[in-house]
Amino acid sequence: FGNAEGGQMQAGLWELFGKHPSGMALMNGSGPHESLKGEKEARQNGHEEADPGEDGNDQEVIVIQDTGFTVKICAPGIEPFSLQVSPQEMVQEIHQVLMDREDTCHRTCFSLQLDGNVLDNFAELKTIEGLQEGSLLKVVEEPYTVREARIHVRHIRDLLKSLDPSDAFNGVDCNSLSFLSVFTEGDLGDSGKRKKKGTEMEQIDCTPPEHILPGSKERPLCALQPQNRDWKPLQCLKVLTMSGWNPPPGNRKMHGDLMYLYVITVEDRHVSITASTRGFYLNQSTAYNFNPKPANPSFLSHSLVELLNQISPTFKKNFSALQKKRVQRHPFERIATPFQVYSWTAPQAEHAMDCVRAEDAYTSRLGYEEHIPGQTRDWNEELQTTRELPRKNLPERLLRERAIFKVHSDFTAAATRGAMAVIDGNVMAINPSEETKMQMFIWNNIFFSLGFDVRDHYKDFGGDVAAYVAPTNDLNGVRTYNAVDVEGLYTLGTVVVDYRGYRVTAQSIIPGILEREQEQSVIYGSIDFGKTVVSHPKYLELLEKTSRPLKIQKHKVLNDKNEEVELCSSVECKGIIGNDGRHYILDLLRTFPPDLNFLPVEGEEMPEECKKMGFPKQHRHKLCCLRQELVDAFVEHRYLLFMKLAALQLMQQKANKQESSGALENGASPENGTADSEKSESEDGKIDDNVTGLDQVKELAETIASDDGTVDPKSREVIRNACKAVGSISDTSFDIRFNPDIFSPGVRFPESSKEEVQDQKQLLKDAAAFLLSCQIPGLVRNQGLAVVSSRKARARSLRGVELSGLSAAISHFLNCFLSSFPNPIAHLPADELVSKKKNKKRKNRNLGNADNTAWASMTPQELWKNICSEAKNYFDFSLECENADQAAEVYNLQKITLLREISLKTGVQILLKEYNFDSRHKPTFTEEDILNIFPVVKHVNPKASDAFHFFQSGQAKVQQGFLKEGCELINEALNLFNNVYGAMHVEICACLRLLARLNYIMGDYSEALSNQQKAVLMSERVLGIEHPNTIQEYMHLALYCFANSQLSTALNLLYRARYLMLLVFGEDHPEMALLDNNIGLVLHGVMEYDLSLRFLENALAISSKYHGSKSLKVALSHHLVARVYESKAEFRSALQHEKEGYTIYKNQLGEHHEKTKESSEYLKYLTQQAVALQRTMNEIYKNGSNANIMPLKFTAPSMASVLEQLNIINGILFIPLSQKDLENLKAEVQRRQQLQESIKSGEQLEPEDKAVEEKEAEPSMPSAALPLTQSSA
Question: Where are stretches of biased composition, namely Polar residues (predicted)?
């Protein structure tokens, strides 16, 4: 993209980090074709939504619109082939493609030449003279260097391991699991073409596995990670490892020896190989004799694969088979994810020899990366430089955001590795003489500190407890300031890692901070929570720019000399100017206002609604703050209030005026300032019937704000009153901000701002009340408590456990928590090795000061007591149960779900096998069941802003019924997301899901299938195989499979989704009703009526429980059940269910609603059928076998009718449109938006209004459609 130098430099960096151990994909993703495709297809449609604030959209369009062209590639030993490339690509991306292709993947050390000239790796193709459509590029083998030889061996090892899932189970190199292909038997795209598109029913086995049937109590774990056929890898070699003869002695170096490898082939031949500048050859060394002379024959080959092909027939056969399989896999199964995802279960795996892994563990990974120039990376410099990249137009912003994201994910990976090294004791402290919990560490240019209250910093806030919460609060602050992205204001790279019961904060290092004392450095804020406070004009100016978006009020505080100091943040937010001259802010733990529900303050009365519910409650620390989302919701709520108040006053004024003057028509006199405006589309005009009133307020507010002298005093007063009523800090416009220092221990305010402080206190109380009365009344279930409390108890019990006893400690803990076995006994780690000498000095090294084996004496009773008191202290929730077994009964919890939750939260990985939780004869877990312990990592997620805007305007267009435009915008968003994030990311997942839904609605089923398949794979890889989102993606994919007549696949996917739901939530969950309706409908479609009824009747029961037996969802459920009974010719049951449904429709929607009419028609039809059947039966009874029988109509449902019902329950509507309909549709959409708004503003809907969501028409080919957000019933 444009910007040659920046591009060159960045690209240079990327190339270097491309081979970076964290396995990060190069440039944009690594499935080379996938990633390049994104750029090739990039189309900018200069829609006004693209970025209204930007001029010059047209120039931006051109930059991205260069079309691709084709070049021919000629590589040694194979036929020339064509490759599609795009002008913005770099030469280097062609390298990546060649290293991934099946027939050229074994080459790494080559150059590309055009007419004998070597192309520069970092040149963009469009800058190369003479390169055009049809040019011939030659692949020329280049001499090796030590670095190139290492890269080559590493690449070959990656190819050998490409199907092996062990990296994903071990959570390394950004690999993660995906099981979709197990359920779709390979790639959906191809099988779709293979199966005949006919209505004829293929014979399929529809029987679900026993354990997923409604009512089954079994919750097997092994099914979570089914064995994949491809995993039994084809063995190509027994051993490939670095030889003990490395490095080559001086005289051999001068012969060109770079390094030596040792290989054992499958045929059991032991060989020594020399990597030389000219390539690889066999030498005459053995394990004990060094003889570097070439063997005879030596088989000199430029690539290691060619050499091995010659000495091992098995290698030759299996390696080529392996590569075939590798390239057949969907790219999304193998591209690295941007952040590591860990699996909480894994099968038993053999530990295989692996030279690269062994070398990484001890050399390049501890502290420096060998093949990156400049050794360690200066993380702070990289993080800040990428922020400073220009951002004036779209290409610049894309380049900048891509750079920010890339550095960020690299930093997160490095910080995670460092934090683990620190806790595992592999890093020396920078203050080794202090006691352990006060130690700080530097590793790989990252600063690490532990979550303890060092030097009584947090004494007034709750000590160690507060010190444990502060890092996550600080991270939220960093996230927020980064999102506001003010030029010239810098934050630190920050990652919070929980590992083995400790919390570690990793931060990039401000240049120069280590050389000076903190007191000298801080020129803004306070290092002692508000005793000494300083300020600085430059910081005030920078922070002022963030104050509006972050709703932070500028305020004055008193310092220890009683001087007033002006701040625009909380006091402990510090400003430090680094040696690089940048203005850094750190310690952002109180960016958001405190939550007064958990901060009782002497002599302060809380609002009634808080007191009613027992608040404020004493909490164990004083750092509870409101989330940014809550602050935004509160301000939004206040804005609506402000508009309504002002509108009412204006109406009253107007009424008075009209009475008094009479002559003035409509009160629309110019000076009155309330001229009826035409803006009935104003964003909040929808809330009140009195639309024009609100508009006048809006206009008035804008006029006053622009300080225009034309507004009469009366109207000014209207706005002033409204401002005062809602707590705005300005009296001429709506502007709500919070002072983050209110109620902060130790902060004092000057007399002069007494009134302001009073108002601020009131505002905080209102926000606390708003949280309780408006936001929380959503669904709150108590399941989380036991888990979180046990997790906290667990974190404490793990601290100080020696590494050698870790698996024993964890399994003992899990037994105490989840096993019904009454007295589990812990095994102390003395089993394997007994050391006679006890070393006295080791005490200090351990981070806990308690006895290291205290965990061994823990009993289930004691643990349960801890959990209960934790739940009481932290959540003020009383677990009225004797033990975990009883809690599971009372709260309807599943132990397997609890096990999953606690493993995910603490990072434990357990063996994949069936666990018996209920045996009273032996404990559930042994130490062999604990496979690993992973870090739990929290970090900032940088955003792709332009892509996100496209995505949002696409969504808006779709909701207004403009599908085609919406679809284009979302495609555009997808391209931009790919550009910034690479191929794998949560937001790309959302994008693909929406695209698939649009494809489906617009009738393009196969495209829907392909996009949804990507969404499922990506969700499995990025969020986890049983994440709630993944379960939903599986359901959508099943629907599209069904529409593509792949019925057995659709069922497999639905069964998988149900299995995951059962494991993660259990049967008792409102979403289960939707899932079971889907399964029931598909089974109905394949005429498995009895099975179908089991699922549909379960769905009916769940819907009745959660939505009430009179809800429209339940009516729809009754109808679905009735249809199955009709197919079974059990008309009495069918009638009974349809009547129930009819009654609900009649009561909720009234006689004349089309739903009610439809239901009544269906009832008539069923009655006729029932009568006909009865008549026939009577005839048979009367006349015996020679009765004259009328043929009865038994209807097996048509696929179309099943699909129609599937669309209804999944909330997808098709609407045949005429011009008139289009008008109505627009009105309908507006009405719906008003409904949404009014729901937001807290007005409850009457049931009549629900009817809107119910309308559905015949599924004719849609010219437009409305995807509803919820399922439509």
Answer: 659-675
Q: How far apart are CA 294 and CA 283, in angstroms?
A: 4
What pTM was computed for the model? 0.82
Quick one: which of 1269, 1258, 1228, 1266 has its CA closest to 1001? 1266
Which is it for strands 440-443 and 522-524: parallel, antiparallel or unpaired? unpaired
pLDDT below 50 — which residues of the chain? 1-65, 190-201, 364-374, 662-691, 778-785, 829-851, 1215-1218, 1242-1273
- The span from the CA of 656 to the CA of 36, in Å, is 68
Task: Give the pLDDT of residue 690.
Answer: 45
CA angle in degrees (0–180, nearest 5) for 1087-1092-1095: 165
Q: What is the DSSP string of 253-294?
A: HTTTEEEEEEEEETT--EEEEEEETTEEEEES--SS----SB
Strands 237-242, 257-265: pairing kind: antiparallel
What is the full DSSP assignment across 582-648?
-EEEE--TTSS-B-GGG---TT-PPPHHHHHTT-S---S-S--B--HHHHHHHHHHHHHHHHHHHHH
DSSP string of 478-529, one letter each residue: HHHHHHH--TTEE---EEEEEETTEEEEEEE--TTGGGS-HHHHEEEB-SST
pLDDT value of residue 1248? 34
Token output for 534: 């300083």
- The pLDDT score that the predictor gives to residue 1236 is 60
Q: Quickly tell me which residue has 């006004």 as its tokens.
A: 48
- What is the reported pLDDT for 186? 58
Q: How far apart are CA 1056 and CA 355, in angstroms?
A: 38
CA distance 193 to 205: 21
Task: Decide: 988 and 974 in contact? Cβ < 8 Å.
Answer: yes
Instruction: Please tell me the distance from the alpha carbon of residue 1036 to that of residue 1058, in angstroms, as a whole number.
Output: 13
E-state strands within 516-573: 522-524, 555-558, 564-567
Q: Is 732:575 a contact under the CB 8 Å cutoff? A: no
**For residue 153, which of 314, 360, 376 has the smallest C-alpha distance?**
360
| 754 vs 763: CA distance, rounded Å | 14
Measured CA to CA, the distance from residue 99 to residue 154 in angstroms comes to: 12
